[in-house]
Amino acid sequence: MALLEVNDLKTYFRTDDGIVKAVDGVNFTVEKGKTLGIVGESGCGKSVTCLTMMGLNNRRNTITSGEAVFKGENLITMKPSKLRDIRGNDIAMIFQDPMTSLNPVHTIGRQLVEAIQLHRDVSTKAAKTRALELLKAVGIPRAERRFADYPHQFSGGMRQRVMIAMALVNDPDLLIADEPTTALDVTTQAQILELMNRKLK
Questions:
Q1: At 200, is the pLDDT very low, low, confident or very high (cuts 50, 70, 90)?
Q2: Contact 184/157 with Cβ under 8 angstroms?
Q3: DSSP element (H, E) containing 63
């Protein structure tokens, strides 16, 4: 059985100028342990497809149909409470813009610990140990000291690494990466891609 099977997925948005067909009938399958790349020009609906599967589009102005079947269950029709349990645990996403995805009023460490304890029954000490392990794995220098820093104290590339650490911290079965290495240099890109590949094997 496929880990994820997307069938005729459509995402339309209601706007003042009428209906915008952002995604209009997408089909693909992701097998466990495999990587699938979705390519296309800017604005063609790649990010919207990811956000739709994660249930992150504004429900009030979004019309969604089709299927995104994960481990035999349709994410599109799933209850929001169950989808929240899956999101960040079984399925994780690395967003394009880490500055808008990280909470500016909480430290990096607090956000990582919270992401772990939301899905795992572990102590704060154990969660901190796990968070530091991932920060070091993605190449954050002096991770113990940077743990108490805020997002604005990190460069764009460092924030991207933090987002990658947050996505991997609960060992998800499916990782959705929306241009995850854009802010990184070529050498670091290779290291991060190898890390993601290793963690998801």
A1: low
A2: yes
A3: strand 62-70
Sole residue written with tokens 């808008």: 100
Closest by alpha carbon to 171, among 91, 57, 113?
A: 91
Domains of the chain: 1-79 (no CATH), 88-201 (3.40.50.300)
CB atoms within 10 A of CB 125: 9
pLDDT bin (cut points 50, 70, 90) of residue 199 is: low
Residue whose entry in the numeric block shows the structure tokens 């706007």: 15
CA angle 126, 129, 133 (to 5 degrees): 140
18-22, 64-68, 96-100, 104-108, range with the lowest pLDDT: 96-100
Q: Which residues pair with 176 in a beta bridge?
A: 93
On whether the pTM is more than 0.70, the answer is yes
